[in-house]
Amino acid sequence: MVDLVEKAREIRVEIIKMLAEAESGHSAGPLGTADLFAALYFGGLVNFRKDEPYWEDRDRVVLSCGHYGPVQYATLALAGFFPVEELKTLRKLGSRLQGHPVRHVVYSGSNDEQLPGIENTGGPLGQGVSVAVGMALAAKMQKSKWKVICVSSDAEQQEGQTWEAYQTASKYGLGNLTFVIDRNEIQISGNLHEVMSIEPLRDKLTSFGLRVFEINGNNFEEILDVFEKGKLFPDQPKAIIMKTIAGKGVSFMEGNFRWHGKAPNSEEAEKALWELK
Amino acid sequence: MNLVNDLINVERKATREGFGEAMVWLGKNNKEVVVVTADLGESMKVDEFEKIYPERFVQVGVAEQNMMGVSAGLALSGKVPFAVSYAVFSPGRNWDQLRVSVCYTNANVKVVGGHTGITVGPDGATHQALEDIAMTRVLPNLMVVVPADYEQAKKATLAMGLHEGPVYMRLTRPKTACFTTATTPFELGKAQVLRTGKEVTIFACGGLVYEALLAAEELKDEVDVEVINLHTIKPLDEETVVRSAKKTGKVITLEDHQVNGGLGGAIAEVLGEKCPTKMVRMGMKDCFGESGNPGELLAKYGLDKDGVIKVIRKIIND
């Protein structure tokens, strides 16, 4: 059994290191969801082949909130999709680790590069939620067994498109699709409930036809358990409202919206890494 | 080019009808082909596809942003989705989704925008897409196609189905002249010289290609007009454009769209760099359309045969 606590710690360390090296990027969301990503890739929740990243029967992890890229990059590197060393190139000229993750389909005759393991292009909020619905629909049409896990942020629920996507997932009974909503209560300009409340989120999601669960997203037992519970509803799309602490693991970042879109400077990074030891 | 023999007495059918018929054929021959629509299946003539292939017909309701994203997800999973709606909504309302989830991702989505141009008619300016060519031709990886009539819409649809990568196709509402035939050649990206001439070139797209042909025919004893159908706006067949402009030295562009950013803009960009040429851009000039019948509207905005004749005479005599 993989030590998930240790994996999540390693992911957080890599997040801090790459953000400090890049001198730009988002800290809070990626740190808060390191536990989820550790559980997905090291806790057996996602079926993948690191050496065959686009293997047809893999599960699809769609990161809709593209600004969480660092947590996805760190996890994929640690899972062996590409060298950990490459994390240093984040946001730099010529890097496969763009500021927000990019999926680029390659057709015959093209030499384009694609960072392995990325399923969608994320950034403008709400878009990945629809893309995930399209993927789950495709799997259902062709009776494939793979599933889709879509990670979105809580502020992303302010986008109308997410609700368009939920009603479609519900209409088509996409039981192979799970929406994980990171409920960290911060967004770029302030605390979510002050900027634009999304509550009552649970009731709203339920009324859109989703099977809703609420968990503590910084607790592995709850994360692993909720995916088990989800299997009891094979014909219904699931939504997991996952409460996390923004900036989790670094005391001076925790719960502070100022760290939404900011990277640590070298001094702050040193302090953060010391805390994560 | 194997056009109809009699240009005056032609059958009239809508480009959307050609599209709908081709979709049934595509559906039969490629089981990965899927139609996604935002409540406009019947109007966009994919109702027959829906009847025959209900399991490959996705109805997302009036939600165009989601339609585009769902299409991207289907494409990323090996499907060949056709995202079908009116152009004012798609790509009008979901341009960001088209830009990121489809074009940047290079997802194999075929976007079909109907009811373009003032020929939408009575519904008025809200439903007359006059900007769709401009907003699609600035997007990397995206091909932009404007079939000129019913037959060409069929051929363009089939060609799009085979093409790897995102495509936008512009369709129209009313029945328009069928002047190409089943044997008229068609190749994406290759401009069609429908009539050769030496004194002036008309570059046109969509249903107005027919007005250009009528004008050229009527003036045949007075001016030698070349008519070129640019059914593919992007990638533009620059070679054919430059060759013709060099030959005639006078260029008219004609489109049922804003001249700024549209076909006129595209030709001006190419000729400005490669062959500066005296030029008149015909189309909508920084204004919205209005309600009326298609014929009345084309006459009012000077985009019918008579309007084209006036401009030909002006550019020749200036």
Report on the structure:
The complex is a heterodimer of chains A (277) and B (318). Chain A has 277 residues and is of the alpha/beta class. In chain A, 37% of the residues lie in helices and 12% in strands. Chain A has 10 helices and 7 strands. Chain A has helices spanning 4-22, 28-32, 34-42, 69-78, 127-141, 160-171, 192-195, 201-207, 220-230, 266-275, and strands at 60-63, 148-153, 177-183, 186-187, 190-191, 211-216, 238-243. Chain A has a 5-stranded parallel sheet, with helices on both faces. Chain A has a two-stranded antiparallel ribbon with strand order 4-5. Chain A is globular, with a radius of gyration of 18 Å. Chain B has 318 residues and is of the alpha/beta class. Chain B has 11 helices and 14 strands. In chain B, the strands form 3 sheets. A 7-stranded mixed sheet of chain B has the order 3-2-4-5-7-6-12, sandwiched between helices. Chain B has a 5-stranded mixed sheet with strand order 9-11-10-13-14, sandwiched between helices. A two-stranded antiparallel ribbon of chain B has the order 1-8. The mean pLDDT of chain B is 98. The interface between A and B is medium-sized, with 37 and 33 residues.
